[in-house]
Amino acid sequence: MVLGSRNIGFLLLAVLWLHMTPFVIGVRLPPIGHINTDEALASDTGSVLADWSAGGGGAEPDFSYPQLRPSTSDQQQESAVRELVYRLIPDRAVEFSFSVSAKLLDSAGRDLFTVRASSGHVHIEASTGVAASWGLHHYLKYGCAAHVSWDSDQLELPRPLPDFSATVRANDRFRYYQNVCTVSYSSVWWGWGRWQRELDWMALNGVNLALAFTGQELIWRRVFTQIGLEAAEVDHFFTGPAFLAWNRMGNLQRWAGPLSDAWHADQLTLAHQIIARMRELGITPVLPAFAGHVPQNFTRVFPDSNITQLEPWNDFNETFSSTLFLNPVDPMYEQIGNLFVAELEREFNGTEHIYNCDSFNEMTPPSSDPDYLAAAGNATLAAMTGADPQAVWLMQGWLFLNSFWEVPQAKAYLTSVPTGRMIVLDLHSDVKPLYGQFDSYYGQPFIWCMLHNFGGQLGLQGTVDQIVKGPFEGRTIANSSMVGTGLTMEGIFQNYVMYDLMLEMGWRKSSPDVVQWAADYSRRRYGPDISNHTTMADAWKFLITTVYNHTVKSVHFHGWFEAVKRPELISSAPPTDVDTVLMSLDLGHIGYFMVTSRPQLSPYPALWYNSSDLTAAWDRLVAGATADQVRAAANLRHDLVDVTREVLTGLLTTYHGRLVGAFSDNNTVLLREEGAVILELLADLDTVLNTDKDFLLGAWVKQAREAASSEEEGVQFVYNLLNQLTLWGPRANIVDYAAKQWSGLMRDYYRARWRVFIT
């Protein structure tokens, strides 16, 4: 059975029907087969937490973290970079040479690269493979006006290669990449080919610390069966692939599962490939750790364990949420955690000693007593150090946005382990930095991160001023413990310019002139053959200073934009002043979309920029290149579709306002006329999206099918992706949070929903 476009349309219509009704139909998928359980481990790993320095022993922390570097030799990393060049520019690779020496690292562990180009040859000397790749990309950008992105490059290099000279020292020890949700929103269906490109992109952008979460479910199955659970009991806990991020954080269980043996095997193979390549390039893989979340039948084996059933997450019922949480002060917590780390070490021939653990992500701890929180934090690290005495705990700081975490609670948790044994990701520094509120995390090192995106939604937005100033402020506050910059977006493949700019904050010594930077960006991204670069630069001047630079401090993005907001009616005229609109809405975030959310009544949506600035940019993008040039330049075609999409969704706001007026006046004739215009606009939007491969639902569906090992599993995987994009749960629990303005989805789901609403 092959799911063709007609089948996908039927599935979307089914989802739409479920969405527009107050009940849903349960979906049953066959369980995977049993596996033999291992003998239960008899010994207790205990707690190991002695005085520590990065070198192992002593009391003073060493923020250079030498033990977190991959064990691959300089020669191995140098060889890996040469292979990267042949993948990236095979016809010009012989014009580049590299030398890698860890001796170039400074006392803070910061990378360095030197680029020397003359007489058509480029030599790059660097401290690590990552730094050498970073130097290569620096030369391509600033020596050759080339561009590398997540999915499309512009690599029209001059002949001969231009002379060039640069020496760059990294500002910090780390450049971090990924959110724990990114794997579910963007990379869940990837195979090795796509992962290989992503790893190259990481290295080229200087990323030297990144999550490596793929394949962990099979390791968890081994651990839980070792302590006495049946394999079927463990398998019953896992969600489907598209929801594993929230299963791993204890938010969900079972939903859209199970996972097949073939999935487990494929993912573990992929994990080996990812981790091996990271090590070769000099990227430090961050592996998962035990966060206390256990399968439902855990109490069958350990009836006296200190277990809390968590509150439902986002209105999921107990079948799919309300997971069991093993209290960190229970001795079994350390035992399970250390069994898991030991299993990781066996599977991957050791680790790089850094592990991500988020026990209380979007969940309230069982007690607010600082003594309890201190004990919980101490036990969390001890659940790593029993197996790996050099372990460092990487924690997302997202939990501290919860009002539960007042100063006494946060300080107790953060200081529960020796300084330096925890690194905090200040996850939303681009809008809501917390390092100032918590006194630079009371000395624990932190990484300044740009979150920027929620759910992988499409919509032009950003905080340019904060991006080009915030990292410098983070380094200079009193008692700053900042050790890096990072990208922590929930989904990729959107707002490419923001990530290109943020990645440069890892080496820039001062804030750039963003207007000039954007002009140079457009030249690099679109290539030398565009007829009018001045016009393109003007387009980006409008975009970078308005659309990409919201500055209202009390409002932050959290996943909703004009084009994806549910169709709504209001009975009063909207305010026209942008700041008044934003400040008057108690939204917590801005940019509510309309197109891709369920129709109902709610406040009038608002923009943080003047729509005339967007249309001015659009006019210039259209005028700056010929039709043939647009066809030949993939990046320009992508951006033109993306900005056109934004303009059309903005027009929807206008026609929605007229629809509201007709409704208020009880003018049924005008109501039908404006409704017809909206439906025509949405049809046009789908047509525009269909002109570029980056905006097609079918591409995502194809990846899901290819990841499946059987026809039945292919149906399950497509259901996973469609549910995530639309209902996000069995009863529209987080409806439209991961909405995508893609052709196919726009036509068969969002427009169909608007048609139901209007008629």
TrEMBL record:
One of its GO terms (molecular function) is hydrolase activity. It holds the Pfam family NAGLU_N. Residues 80-162 form the Alpha-N-acetylglucosaminidase N-terminal domain. Residues 175-509 form the Alpha-N-acetylglucosaminidase tim-barrel domain. The keyword Oxidoreductase does not apply. Residues 1-26 form the signal peptide. Residues 517-758 form the Alpha-N-acetylglucosaminidase C-terminal domain. The keyword Metal-binding does not apply. It comes from the Eukaryota. Keywords: Hydrolase, Signal. This is Alpha-N-acetylglucosaminidase. The gene is NAGLU_1.
